[in-house]
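Now for one record.
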Amino acid sequence: MRGRSLVWLLALYLPTELLLAFLLHTQSPSYPFSYASVVLAALACLALYEPTPNWLLTATALLFTLGADLFLVVLDAHYTVAMLLFSVTQLAYAARLSLGEGKRLRRVQLSVRAAAVLAAVSATVAVLGKDTDALAVIALFYFANLLTNAAFAAAKWRRAPLFAIGLWLFVLCDIFVGFGMLGEYLPLGDGALLSFLADPPLNMAWVFYLPSQVLLSLSFLHRDRLRISKSTPLPFH
C-alpha cells in the first residue's frame, strides 16, 4: 500500500484515534474506547504491511501489546501475565533496534540492557525486601527494557523519529502507571507531586499511551511510501 491508498487509510485512521482519545477521557466506562484504540493501532500496522523486518517486529510488538492490554484494560486481572506480554513487546522493539547494527554496537546494546535489567531488579528486591513478588520483578524487567529501548531509539532519532517519540511517550505513560501501582508496595506520603503522580485528575497514562501506540504503528513507514503524484486526489479535497 502506497500513495493514494495510504493517504486514505491515514485519513481514516488518525481522526478515528483522535475520536477514541476524546471518548476515553469523557465517557464512563472508558475501557471499550481505550482498548479499541489499541486494536485499531494494531490493525493499522497490519494493513500497512511491507515485507521488511522492521514491519514484522513492529507488528509483533503491537500484537503482544494487544494481548497485554486485554488483561490490563478489559479484564483488569492477571497483571503478571500482562507484564510478561509487555516484556515480549519490548524485546521485539529491542530486536528492531539491533537491525542493521554491527557486532560491536549490538554487544553495547546487549550489555547496557543487561546492566539496566540487573540494576532495576536488584533495586526492586533491595527496596521491597520480603514484599517482593513476581509482578514487581517482571514489571521492572519490562520497564528497564522499555527505558533502554527509548534511549537507543533517541540515539537513532534521525533514522526513525516516530519510533523514538513513540517509545518516550510509552515511558511517560508507564511513569504514571508505576506511581499508581507503587502505593500498593510503599507509602507515598502526602507530597503534592507524589499525590498528583499517583492519582492525577486526568487519566495521564492514556494521554501519553494512545499517541505512543499510534506513532509506533506508523514508525516503520518509509518516506517514499507517502509520495503521491500531483494528480492524485486527496481525501480532504
